[in-house]
Each structure stands twice: as C-alpha cells, then as structure tokens.
Amino acid sequence: MAELHKAVPTFTPLRQKKIALAGGELRELPQTLKLSLRGDAADQAFLQAAADVLTKAGAGGLPIPLAANTVSAGSRASIFWMGPDEWLLRTEADALDELSGPLSESAVATAFEEQHVAVVDVSDYYTVLELGSKHSMDILARSCPLDLESCFAKQGCCAQTRLGNAAVLLDSDSPDLWRIQVRWSYAQYLWQLLERSASSV
Amino acid sequence: MFTIECPWCGNRDQSEFTCHGEAHIARPLNTESMTDEQWGDYVFFRKNTKGIHYERWVHAFGCRRWFNAVRNTVTDRISSTYKPGEKPPAN
What we know:
- The complex is a heterodimer of chains A (201) and B (91).
- Chain A is α+β, with helices and mostly antiparallel strands and 201 residues long.
- Chain A folds into 2 domains: 18-31 and 125-201, Probable tRNA modification gtpase trme, domain 1 (Gyrase A, domain 2, 2-Layer Sandwich); 34-122, Heterotetrameric sarcosine oxidase (Alpha-Beta Plaits).
- Chain A has 6 helices and 11 strands.
- Chain A has helices spanning 44-57, 96-99, 105-111, 136-141, 148-151, 187-199; strands at residues 18-21, 24-28, 34-38, 71-73, 77-83, 86-91, 118-121, 126-133, 158-163, 166-174, 177-183.
- In chain A, the strands form 2 sheets. Chain A has a 6-stranded antiparallel β-sheet with strand order 1-2-8-11-10-9. A 5-stranded antiparallel β-sheet of chain A has the order 4-5-6-3-7, covered by helices on one side.
- The relative contact order of chain A is 0.20.
- Chain B has a single domain (1-22, 45-91), classed as Folate-binding superfamily (Folate-binding fold, 2-Layer Sandwich), CATH 3.30.2270.10.
- In chain B, the strands form 2 sheets. Chain B has a 4-stranded antiparallel β-sheet with strand order 3-4-5-6, with no helix packed on it.
- Chain B is elongated, with a radius of gyration of 15 Å.
- In chain B, 20% of the residues are buried.
C-alpha cells in the first residue's frame, strides 16, 4: 500500500490570533494533532487496541468514552465522543512534537492490524479557539441553541452543536474557559461571530 | 423552543437537525424486470401523508447520525424517534 505522508501543518488558519474582549480574551490555540477514529464500540479488541496505542505513545491510559457527549481528558491528549462509532483524539499543543510520531495516522492504523477500523488524520481539517472570559457563557449563548448550563453540569462533558452557522465541538474546564473546535474554513467566520457576540454582553 | 430527541445525544434544538423525507422505502429487489412506471413510483412518488408520518432525519450539527422519527404532519408533534434498523413504533 502506498504510504501517504500527511504532516500536521505547522500553522493554523488564524495564525494564533489573540484579542481581548468583554471580561477576558479570545485566542486561537497552536496546532494540535487530531485523529478521527472509527470502530465498533462493542468490540473489546478494538477498545483494548486503542487503549494500548495511547499508553504506548505516552498519552496516558485514556479510555475511549462510550457515553454520548463525553470526553476522556488527559494532560497530554483527549478523546472526544463524536458518534456511536466515532471518536476524535486531540493532543495538547505542547505535546504535539512528542506525540505526532507515535500517534501518526499510519502508526495508529498499524496498531489495529486486521481490525475493521478507520483512522484518519484530521489535523488540517479543524482548528481550536479558546474563549476565556467571565462572560463566556453569555457570549456563547448568543449563537448557541444548546443549554450549556445543564449540558456541562458535570465534569467530562463535551458537545457537538452549532454556533451561528458553524458546526462546533465544545468542551470546557470551567464555566469561564471554553475550547471551541471548528472546521478550518469556518474559523474566520466563527472568530467574527464571537467578537460580535462579545461586543454586546 | 422546538426540540427533537436524537437517539444518541438526547433532546436538542430542531435547528441542529435536517429532515430527509419519508422513511422505510425499501429498494425493490427485482430491479432488472421493473417497468419505467414502477421505477418512477419508487424514485419519485411519496405518500404525502396527512397525520402520522415516518421520516428520516439527520442530527446534522451534532453527532451527524441518521435516525427515524414519527411526526404528525398536522400538529408537527414528533411522538418518537428511533435508530435505523429498529422496528418502527406502532402509533
């Protein structure tokens, strides 16, 4: 099989822009490694192989989250539930250099050997914005139909929803600090949307 | 707010979903011997029900999964949703 070389881009669509806004700041996080992983949640061999490849890569023993809208968050990488048979592995920016080798698309695909599993590098498909403000919830609520308060009442929650017309993946450390993953081509749109929302809180 | 129950994500706002028409239309098995009229019926013609209607929906802004919904086309009330492959409820 021809080996497709997919390097993680060194830049991000907004070039890590940062601005101060109502009660805090909005910034684009540095590039991270993102892998889309699809497999059968009922297959123990798949779950075991996924856990093994993460442990071996030094990303910590993160379990694959099986409950909808939850995330297994570690200090170096997180795994998000994206669907009943789909997960997203995202490294922290400072762990990118170290993990991009052992967690590359081909390395992870090899770990699943003959299993019926799909591994796709989507690092250049998404970017992540970080909104840190005491008005974060209000800013997001301007364009989000989801009840953030009840949806993120517990630790370890994430949610795919929409902000304006952009499909986003939200996760948060506290009610004030949110990470918003969005498609590369929607980054500029979302940035302007958040900037505008923040101007009226 | 009009919410729809995604079989995986739970209750979400309707603006996260898109509807894709009538559900449970089985592809015919005798495709080689079908007439143009029979093909036309299969491809283009729908029941256009007034009342209980079985529909296919996608949670487009959420988990991006397909599922089926039972919607009353008169009141717009969705009485239940279920995963593909599951038996449609009797109502």
